[in-house]
Write the structure tokens for this entry.
Amino acid sequence: MRIADSVGAGPYDDGMIIISGRLAVDPGDRDAYLRGCSGVVEQARAFPGCLDFALGADLIDAGRINVYERWESEEALEAFRGSGPDEGRTVAILDAEVLRYHVSGVGPA
């Protein structure tokens, strides 16, 4: 399981941070898992420095949850981190690859 915090943040300039990746859960439990995460999503979106926060069911893989977070800064992300998934949410995760990206520039797509 590879989660962003296990990779190490390192010394970066204070800029936008994107957390992106995937979680694997039992396909039969995915919808219940996502419903159980609605409070965390609401909490994150209301948190100072959170620009976006989404967990969503993958359209093809019934056991996959896509993770996307966008934060104003490393400081904002770290301030929120203490309110991550509770143990019940973590136990349901079978595998994960969620990484932290430090954005050096932003422009139209």
